[in-house]
Amino acid sequence: MPDSTTDNPQTNLMGETSASDDLGPGTNPCIRTSLLDESPSPRNKVLADSYLLAEIFSAFGNHSYNQGQLLGLALVSTTFKGPALDILWSKMKSYLPLIKLLPLQEIESQLYSTGEFSPSNFHAYATRIRELEIAQPSNVSCQVLMRLTKELAGAPFLPNLRRVSVLHLDEFAASLFTLLLSPTLSEVEFEGSSLSRPHLPIVVVPLISHKSYIKKLSLKSASYDGLDDEFFDSIQTFTNLEALTIALPHRSVNSSLLSHILDQLRNLRELEMDVRICDLVNKHKPTLSVSASPAYSNLKSVRLKVDVVGPALRNGRSSVLPGYPDSLLDHMTHLTIIFHCNFSTSGARRIRERASQAPSLKTVVLQPWSVKRGSEIRIPPYVLKGLFAVPTLEDIRIEAWIADDDETTEDSFLEKMIKHRISRIRVNSPQFIDPLRTIHLPKADFFCPPQTLRTVDYVARNLGGLESLQLRLNSSTEALDDGGARLFSQTEHTQCALRELVVVEARNTRFPPMDHLTIAQFLDRTFPNLASIQAYTDRVDNPFREEQAQSWKLINRLRSDARLLRIHMNHSL
Questions:
Q1: How many domains is the chain partitioned into structurally?
Q2: Which residue, of 29, 58, 532, 551, is most buried by count of CB atoms within 10 Å of its CB?
Q3: Residue 469 falls within a domain, yes or no?
Q4: Cα separation, 117 vs 151, whole angstroms
């Protein structure tokens, strides 16, 4: 049998801790005294409360860099052992630590089950697993599963398993998956190559038979498009689904079939789609017109990722939001648009109309299909104005090139967007509380004109609820001069709630020495709640790149000191 106690911290505790181990010389003296003291002290009450200990240990998190700490806690005493192991084994990145609790022998590079089986020891760890990831191939023989199935005699393999994520399927993993199905399993994810043949059909049939227990189903693959049609069609039979993710950008889905599938999932609360919608008539399912599509009244979150493609990719026509039923778009909360080409006039009009008509749209992300070729695609400012004017918008992230604006004013790009939002939303609703919390402009050089400190001041005064801002910034303090007086010198701190500021420095000069303190004081008064500044200088040809990075570190330190001093002075008054 191979030594399985050194492969992973999760396999190191296979036996029981003895009393001598519990109260031995290495035991913490405080804990040792507490365990022997029978008085109902607060310390003893804490040690006796396994649920409270579990909450405390959960703060470590089940991460690889914390597993050693959890293992150390489990070795302290029997009091700590149970709660610590519960956290350590709750989320498993592999099934191998559990399999290696069995008596195994390697024969011709394959692991086989040999020797006596200890059900109690195996069960003690199997019951702790809540989430399992099947990601890597292994050299474990299917004979091990046959032996295990016989020994368990019909009992669940992982009786408390709630979620399984499958990234790789070989013969052993596919056979193992069928043993994982139990009434507690409610979340199933397939990603990447796990959606390919030949082993996927092995898991489909038992999964469908288990469909009444599945609440969340996720199918994700960035490149694979050969998903079995019968499996895809069977999704409509998972009538208890509450969350469905289909992220298969190369998969063509008939719009009528999609409507039919969603019509059957009446309990669906969350939907995420990234597929190619086609209008071909499906011969297996009745065709539903857009007007006949269901209301999807239970949907609370709809995330759609769509492609803006040119005539060469869409049968001679450009397309935006193709084929999705209007009633589904009405529930859209998150919209990600991948640009393969520039907007046509009709496409720009379509996206503005759909965004303005979506009553629950909260997040918009605009991305080029390729970072290297992103400079070939430009988003018209009038399209962005339409998106900024969506009253429910909470988060907008722009990663594509913003085209030049024909309108010539002294206002920066971001000021124009905010003014347009204010003019469309707040004129008719003066008491409107703006929900906008995140604005991320492109970080790439030339993708967006650099903003100035004057723009930063304008943002703080007009978007008080903003929490995260990313922009290319020319931090020259000349922008703060207004009629010979500094903008911030005659004003108190704003009420802006901004906590995160990401700056891509756009100036090509050194920071003058006095600018460090000036910018630090300005940012502290403009964003009094600011927790962090992340500064970048992305131009490789900038000769002052390293100096600017050091300058921003100094500015952040000065701003942080000013904030701490202000908070201290306020508490002292």
A1: 1
A2: 551
A3: no
A4: 8
Count of CA atoms in the C-beta half-sphere (13 A) of 17: 21
Cα–Cα distances in Å, from 518 out to 478, 525, 555, 568? 11, 11, 9, 21
Q: Is the dihedral of CA 495, 500, 504, 505 positive or negative?
A: positive
Give the global pTM: 0.77
Residue 407 has pLDDT above 70, yes or no: no
Q: In the beta sheet, which residues pair with residue 395?
A: 363, 438
- Phi, psi dihedrals of residue 36, rounded to the nearest 5°: -85, -20
* Residue 123 falls inside a structural domain: no
C-alpha span between 280 and 294 (Å, rounded): 20
- Flag whether 73 is in a domain: yes
Helix (H) or strand (E) holding 440: strand 438-440
Per-residue burial over 65-99, b = 16 or more CB atoms within 10 Å of its CB, e = otherwise? ebbebbbebbbbbebbbebbbbbbbbebbbbbbbb
Sign, CA dihedral 412-413-417-423, equals: positive
Q: Tell me which residue of 335, 350, 308, 468 sits closest to 392, measured CA to CA.
A: 335
Q: Read off the pLDDT of residues 34-68 as tens digits, 9 standing for 90 and up.
A: 445 556 777 777 777 877 887 877 777 666 656 77
In a domain, 52, yes or no: yes
Distance CA 550, CA 545 (A): 9
| 327 phi, psi to nearest 5 deg | -65, -25
Please identify which residue in the block is written with the tokens 């940012």. Answer: 523
